[in-house]
Specification:
With 177 residues, the protein is an alpha+beta fold. Helix content is 23%, strand content 36%. The chain has a single domain, classed as Ribosomal Protein S5, domain 2 (2-Layer Sandwich). The radius of gyration is 16 Å and the shape is globular.
């Protein structure tokens, strides 16, 4: 897995959340679970958001700030959903201040929310004593959103099923994408 950690200290970590583009997308039959079957080739880009997670012992639950995008500062934000799922799985202290610096436009189809969520999972894994395995992270990512698991693979990948079945095609991201 590519190292997306941009900065780390004892009490905080900053994680890069890359944007993605779909190089190919085919949506086919509707599944019994309400999702559609799809096949897509996704490429991660060299541009993206930054997720900063800091321990804050004065807080009773994780809180999110997103300067310039205050409408994203709510419990439905996938960053907070990811942190809550990680904490449910691992336990431990619940006081975290999360800062989200957006460069990926919301609702643009570039995977910003999903990438931010996976970056939050990676950040929690990096910051805390107990770490989840890659298979546990993929399972949590799939619970959060269909394309979330693809953000655990650094380069170009094939996604199938509802988007959670990932196969790497090219293992690393280049600045040319």
């Amino acid at each position: 897995m590519i190292d997306r950690i941009r900065e780390k200290s004892k009490d905080g970590v900053t994680v890069f959340a890359p944007a993605k583009i779909n190089l190919f997308l085919a949506v086919t039959s509707k599944r019994t679970d309400g999702y559609h079957e799809l096949t897509t080739i996704m490429a991660k880009l060299g541009v993206g958001d930054l997720v900063r997670i800091e321990k804050n012992h004065h807080l009773k639950e994780p809180i999110l700030s997103c300067p310039g995008f205050e409408e994203l500062e709510n419990r439905k934000n996938l960053v907070l959903v990811a942190v809550e799922k990680w904490l449910e799985k691992v336990g431990g202290e619940r006081g975290y201040q999360i800062g989200l610096r957006k460069k990926i436009p919301s609702m643009s189809g570039l995977g910003g929310g999903s990438s931010d969520a996976v970056s939050a999972l990676l950040g929690m894994n990096e910051l805390c004593d107990h770490q989840l395995s890659i298979s546990e992270l993929k399972a949590l990512a799939a619970e959060i959103g269909s394309d979330c698991p693809s953000f655990l693979d650094p380069g170009i990948c094939l996604a199938e099923g509802r988007g959670e079945e990932i196969s790497p095609i090219i293992a690393s991201v280049t600045d040319d994408l």
